[in-house]
Structures are given as structure tokens and as C-alpha cells.
């Protein structure tokens, strides 16, 4: 089939494309929506060509721009589309937090609420946070609830509703300002635009909602176990109660195994093929002999390996469980997801930590029946959720044109990297 050239057409005629900054890579997925809650996956590509992404944060914009361009070019080739000019962006990163924020309007007399006023109030909330915290930037802002003349409602005000006093309450996802700046610079260098940015927790909740919609209103937690970060989100009704990020993930388990004198490839193989989340979960204690990096062989049993794994998992998970403890009466289920959740026994391990029902988050109900099996993996849940959010966004903004890319320096130009990062948690009041 010949490639389709649609560079000048409106964004609602483009394929849905979600692009995510991972632990150390850039991933992108394209799909088309074929039903109210059904996607047909068209293709997937990823790149870790350069060492420029660190736990969801861009550290080098020139290389990140090249990778964005490369991923979208390869994805376009795969799905027979000549040029993918824009993408829905999923962001997270180790400095991200959620912050409640609100603003009010006294309109004196009852009147309808124009869309322009809601946009203005949302913008005011973002400016309020960034003015109070000069080093912070709002990555995404999500409506929580509204109050019209003292009456609370979850949905946005309808065109036929009238009020004299309006309160708008939001949850803002906040990160370091340089995170947002570098992401935009990377897209500019790629000659691509961000159609809309979403945060990873929002995408995951959107992916899991069709499987158990009541859980969102009854209260749930999502434990997102990535390679370099682990994120806990607690959600109830329309409110994000907590977002906490630990700057360690499943890759740190691999690193601990290498400290026994085992090469990284062998350590990764041991973890994925023979690893258990806890020694109590090992049914058959195998005896293994592994070549060491020093030339000798190392003898290890399955329980020895599981003990090492549990040591690192406890270090990662225990601080999150302390944070979760204060909300345990307000949630009915903990969903686990991400590549790190695939380790044998992880569900039982988290269950022992929480005392709350633990399930693997599933996005299966969002996928067409002919979807290849690999896309059902938790590793793709956030991208699938991002595609659904993107589709909803286009439905709410019919006819909106593709946002233009801001072309900056060409890829390959010298860039002076003046920002540095550390793992210190930033608090935003």
C-alpha cells in the first residue's frame, strides 16, 4: 500500500500516536480507535540509541531530539504513513508530584459558564503553582471537581448550567521546570509537536478503568514498577490522593545481583528466568552454577537468588507502603503494572505488604480481538492508556489543527547543557 501523505490535514485524521519517555528509552505506539473503548494497534517502535533519558527526564536535548525523530520515522514506516508530525506525550520522571489546587469566580448574577472561563481558571491554577515555586512547572493538570453555588459535582459544568459562584478544583502534576523545558526543546529539535501531554498515572488509570470501572470510585492504588523508577498513585472518585516516586526500579535488582561477581547479562537472565520476589515463594530450590566475572564459578540456589531480590525490593517498596498506609481504608484494590511487575511471585509479595487485594492491571478490554499477544503485556499499559486519552482529547476538540512544531537548532548543533539533576525530593506547597 502506498504511503499516505496528510501533512496538511487536521489532527483528527492522523493516526493516534502516544510517545513516552521511559527509564532510558523513548517508546511510541500508533493505533486507531474502532469502538467506544476499543483500539487496533497499528505499530510500535522504541529507541535507546543515546544515553540521554534518565528515569523519564531528558538530560541531553540534541540526542533526545534525534531519538524522537527516529522513533516517529520508524513508526511511520511501519504503519505506512509518510510523516507523523505530532504525538500525545506521556511524562513522569523521578521529580513528579501531584498537588491539589483551586480557584474561584464570583460572577454576582447567575449565568452560564463559558468554556473560555474554565480555560482561564485552569491557566490561573497553573500560574499560581509556578509563581509560588519558581523552579517548578505544571506537567499536566486534571479537573477533580467543581462547586456551583455551593453544590459539588464531579463533571465539568454543562452549557445549560447557570451559577453565580464557581469553584474549580484540580490536581496538578508538577515537576522541575527544566524537565518541561528540555522535553519541549527535544521536540523542537526533532521538528515535531506535542499534541497534548498526559502524565503516566492518568494514562494507567485510563487503561485499567474498562476492566473494573467501580474500582476508580471505590478507591484504588496503582504500583507502577519500571526499570529505573517505581511510582505509587492513589486515586478515589475523581481525586488523586497521592503520587510518590522512588528513583529505583527492577534494573536496580539486576545491579544487586551483579555485585555477587555475576555479569550483567547473566544477572538479568537469572532475575527474569529464575527469580522470585521472595524466598518463601520458591517451590523448588534449584542449585545453579554461574560463571563469575573473575573467571571462577559461583554456586547459587533459587532461594539465595530470591533473598537477594527481596532485599532490593524491600528497599524500593517499603517507603511506598508507608505512604500507602494512610490511605488503606480508602482503597479496595492495588493494581501492579510495569515491566518490573512480571517477576514470579510479585502479586503475592505485594499482597503480603499491603493487606489489600492485589491484581495485575489489565488493559485487555481496550484491545481489538486480533491484537498480537505481546501488546497485552503490562509494559504497554501506559501507551495504550495514552492512546485512549488522546482519542478522547480529539473527540473533545473536533477540527483542531496540528499544533505547529517550533523548529530550534538543527540536530547536531552544539548545545550547552547548563542543568543538573539530583535525587533530592522537591516539595511543592
Order of helices and strands: EEEEEHEEHEEEHEHHEEEHHEEHEHEH
Strand content: 25-35%
Quick one: how many beta strands? 18
> What is the CATH third-level topology name of the domain at 97-177?
Dna Ligase, domain 1
Q: How many DSSP H or I helices?
A: 10
> What is the radius of gyration computed over CA atoms, rounded to a whole number of angstroms?
23 Å
Level of helix content?
25-40%
Major sheet size, sense and barrel closure = 5 strands, mixed
Low-confidence blocks of residues:
1-12, 408-429
Averaged pLDDT, please?
A: 85
- Report how far apart the termini are: 54 Å
What structural class do helix, strand and pairing data support?
alpha+beta
CATH level 1 name of the domain at 97-177: Alpha Beta
Give the overall form: globular
Q: Could you give the order of strands across the largest sheet?
A: 3-2-1-6-11
Annotated CATH architecture of the domain at 97-177: 2-Layer Sandwich
Short account of what is shown:
This protein has about 425 residues and is of the alpha+beta class. The protein has ten helices and 18 strands. The relative contact order is 0.16.
Furnish the topology, listing elements before pairings:
Blueprint: E1 16-21, E2 26-35, E3 38-47, E4 53-54, E5 57-58, H1 61-78, E6 86-91, E7 97-112, H2 115-132, E8 136-148, E9 151-153, E10 162-176, H3 177-190, E11 193-199, H4 200-208, H5 213-218, E12 220-225, E13 230-236, E14 239-246, H6 250-258, H7 264-274, E15 287-291, E16 297-301, H8 302-325, E17 333-337, H9 346-354, E18 358-360, H10 381-396
Parallel strand pairs: 1-6, 6-11, 12-17, 17-18
Antiparallel strand pairs: 1-2, 2-3, 4-5, 7-10, 8-9, 8-10, 12-13, 13-14, 15-16
Helix pairs in contact: 1-3, 4-10, 6-7, 6-8
Amino acid at each position: 500500500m502506498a504511503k499516505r501523505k496528510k501533512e496538511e490535514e487536521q489532527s483528527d485524521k492522523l493516526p493516534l500516536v502516544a510517545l513516552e519517555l521511559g527509564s532510558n528509552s523513548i517508546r511510541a505506539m500508533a493505533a486507531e480507535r474502532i469502538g467506544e473503548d476499543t483500539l487496533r494497534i497499528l505499530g510500535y517502535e522504541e529507541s535507546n540509541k543515546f544515553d540521554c533519558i534518565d528515569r523519564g527526564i531528558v538530560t541531553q536535548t540534541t540526542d533526545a531530539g534525534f531519538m524522537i525523530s527516529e522513533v516517529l520515522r520508524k513508526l511511520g514506516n511501519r504503519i505506512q504513513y509518510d510523516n507523523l508530525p505530532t504525538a500525545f506525550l506521556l511524562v513522569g520522571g523521578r521529580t513528579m508530584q501531584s498537588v491539589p489546587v483551586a480557584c474561584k469566580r464570583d460572577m454576582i448574577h447567575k449565568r452560564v459558564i463559558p468554556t473560555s472561563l474554565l480555560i482561564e481558571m485552569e491557566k490561573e491554577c497553573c500560574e499560581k503553582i509556578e509563581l509560588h515555586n519558581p523552579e517548578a512547572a505544571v506537567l499536566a493538570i486534571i479537573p477533580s471537581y467543581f462547586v456551583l453555588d455551593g453544590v459539588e459535582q464531579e463533571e465539568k459544568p454543562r452549557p445549560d448550567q447557570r451559577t453565580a459562584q464557581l469553584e474549580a478544583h484540580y490536581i496538578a502534576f508538577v515537576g522541575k521546570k527544566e524537565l518541561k523545558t528540555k522535553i519541549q526543546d527535544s521536540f523542537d529539535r526533532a521538528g515535531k509537536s506535542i499534541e497534548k501531554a498526559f502524565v503516566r498515572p492518568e494514562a494507567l488509570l485510563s487503561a485499567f478503568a474498562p476492566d473494573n470501572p467501580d474500582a476508580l470510585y471505590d478507591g484504588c492504588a496503582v504500583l507502577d514498577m519500571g526499570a529505573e523508577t517505581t511510582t505509587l498513585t492513589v486515586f478515589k472518585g475523581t481525586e488523586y490522593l497521592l503520587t510518590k516516586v522512588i528513583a529505583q526500579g527492577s534494573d536496580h535488582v539486576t545491579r544487586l545481583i551483579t555485585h555477587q561477581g555475576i555479569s550483567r547479562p547473566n544477572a538479568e537472565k537469572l532475575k527474569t528466568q529464575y527469580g522470585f520476589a521472595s524466598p518463601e515463594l520458591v517451590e523448588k530450590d534449584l542449585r545453579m552454577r554461574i560463571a563469575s566475572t573473575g573467571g571462577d564459578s559461583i554456586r547459587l540456589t533459587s532461594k539465595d537468588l530470591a533473598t537477594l531480590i527481596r532485599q532490593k525490593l524491600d528497599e524500593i517498596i517499603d517507603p511506598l507502603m508507608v505512604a500507602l498506609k494512610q490511605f488503606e481504608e480508602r482503597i479496595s484494590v492495588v493494581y501492579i503494572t510495569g515491566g518490573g511487575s512480571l517477576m514470579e511471585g510479585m502479586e503475592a509479595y505485594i499482597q503480603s505488604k499491603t493487606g489489600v487485594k492485589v491484581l495485575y492491571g489489565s488493559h485487555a478490554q481496550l484491545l481489538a480481538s486480533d491484537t498480537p499477544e505481546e501488546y497485552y503485556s503490562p509494559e504497554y499499559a501506559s501507551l495504550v492508556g495514552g492512546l485512549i486519552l488522546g482519542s478522547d482529547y480529539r473527540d473533545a476538540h473536533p477540527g483542531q489543527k496540528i499544533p505547529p512544531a517550533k523548529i530550534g537548532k538543527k540536530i547536531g548543533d552544539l548545545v550547552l547543557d547548563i542543568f543538573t539533576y539530583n535525587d533530592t525530593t522537591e516539595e511543592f506547597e
